[in-house]
Write a structure and sequence with these properties.
The structure is a homodimer. The first copy, chain A, is α+β, with helices and mostly antiparallel strands. Chain A has four helices and 13 strands. Chain A folds into two domains: 156 residues, Elongation Factor Tu (Ef-tu), domain 3 (Beta Barrel); 75 residues, YaeB-like fold, CATH 3.30.2310.
């Protein structure tokens, strides 16, 4: 084993950066694809912002995004974690989870490829079903190959426990805000809020909390309460510090 | 974009190393899963060789292996490549392929998890369907989550062109060698050779070559010829320099 221990580390250079509606970890979907309305962009960084590098990619419906969980790098990695889907009651080895608190902090997401945009030296991929924080460094893009990547015989392991989506409702004012926001920006806010809240973004440690919860999507602050195991969106408002 | 350009690179540390039958690139399957008999091991490196890190992983049938294409790092990356599946006739952007000649040289394989072994301070995962060179540095292991990773609606892009498996036959002496080898070692050599040759491992540049071809699996040299679009295995022999 000596040769491997002595092997020097390999330095990753970001090839792109995520532009998404998720400005903070709370509310960001825990996996790709579960909030299809979560549109985002991968903006390529020089010298990778050349159209030749993505020639042919537009023929695929889905792509893999390999990225760095940049917000957990400073905190280091953990041997084991308590996955939120198990209610925080059981510990799993970090390699048996998709937790960001992992050695090398690499993330992997299969997302829908909605389009490739190119102009004024800016090359970007538009994606759907993102679970990626705004500002996330991207280190690789690969086509999703259903013949090798879609393993229909795979078992879901400890994640096979049933998960019931939460009911989500909006008070009238919040629903009206979302309609107006979508009309002005084209962003499907109500649909996105519903997809996120159905998955119950609360960490296990806050499942008994009776307070309001809030998350920020683009420049909108969304507030909800939990009532009889149902999410009720009580307020949506533009954050003071920005204008979108 | 200034902040991203200025972002420092992130240094990966290998968490493990691949022990596989593939000693050289030629003959190594181009994708995971297409040669199910390609068994391999992921041997964890200190300080990651602790059983707590993989607790719960054994409940999954498949895992993702993230690794470095270490043999192409020195050569750097290419803007575009000629995928072998297109006969080398067309160029695709490197991000539209799974080529190793990519920025950051990261590889991604979904493999079957056959077992977890632990003893004498050695922690290893036994895997099937590997497409990984012996000695490959592994940088992450993740459970395969069918609910999010298996996208049944994904289109195969430029790879959707039909691919016909090649017919494979063995001369009697080669078949007898394989039976004896399997009996002595438990390694399903004939099955593995068949799975590899069905995919035609020849690079596009050698498709018109009439010579013999050879590949090394474990310590065995396997020789074949192409006759009427069929692979005929003409010889299998133990390489002089080793005893397996």
């Amino acid at each position: 084993m000596t040769e491997e221990r002595a092997a020097p580390g390999f330095t990753l250079q970001p090839i792109g950066v995520i532009r998404s509606c998720f400005k903070e970890k709370f509310g960001t979907p825990r996996q790709a694809g579960i909030a299809p309305s979560a549109w985002a962009e991968i903006e390529f960084i020089e010298p990778y912002n050349r159209k030749e590098l993505v020639k042919g990619l537009e023929s695929f419906s889905h792509i893999w995004v390999l990225f760095l969980f940049h917000e957990t790098i400073a905190a280091g990695w953990k041997t084991s974690v308590r996955p939120p889907r198990l209610g925080g009651r059981r510990r799993m080895g970090v390699f048996a989870t998709r937790s960001p608190h992992r050695p090398n902090h690499l993330g992997l997401s299969a997302v829908r490829l909605l389009g490739v945009s190119n102009g004024n030296g800016r090359l970007a991929l538009e994606i759907g079903g993102a679970d990626l924080l705004d500002g996330t460094p991207v280190v690789d893009i690969k086509p999703y190959l259903p013949a090798v990547d879609c393993r229909q015989d795979a078992s879901a392991g400890w994640l096979s426990e049933e998960f019931a989506a939460m009911d989500v409702a909006f008070i009238d004012e919040a629903a009206a805000f979302c309609r107006d926001y979508e009309h002005r920006t084209g962003r499907r806010l109500a649909k996105l809020v519903q997809e996120i809240l159905e998955q119950d973004p609360r960490p296990a440690s806050q499942r008994d909390k009776k307070d309001r919860f809030g998350m920020r999507l683009w420049g909108v602050n969304v507030t909800w309460i939990i009532e009889n195991e149902r999410c009720l969106v009580t307020n949506c408002e533009i954050l003071a510090e920005n204008n979108c």
